[in-house]
User: Fold this.
Amino acid sequence: MVQGGRSLDSVTIQTGRVAVAILRGSRDELVARLRNRLDRGGAELVVEFVLAGTSRPIILTPEGEGYLLHEVGGWLLEKGNEDFLPHGIGELHEALCEAPQQHG
Assistant:
């Protein structure tokens, strides 16, 4: 479904200069992982993801990018291959790997 040019079935995450769209279900799985973290970085990202919903892009700070890279990287290690990650999370990982270079 599309509303105002934006899909209600996906979420856009802005990393550096790259925007990555992930499905809402993938976002929900990512938020669930972040909620299991008991530190401030995870809590801040959960708030950002929840407030954004599907209505606006999530624009990450460099700190948020680093935190999310660590979390998604750990998820990738658990699964062993991007093919086993939820749809779009592999692309998000690739964008996050490139993001620090773009800020420099």
Observations:
- The chain has one domain: 2-103.
- The longest strand covers residues 10-15.
- The chain has four helices and five strands.
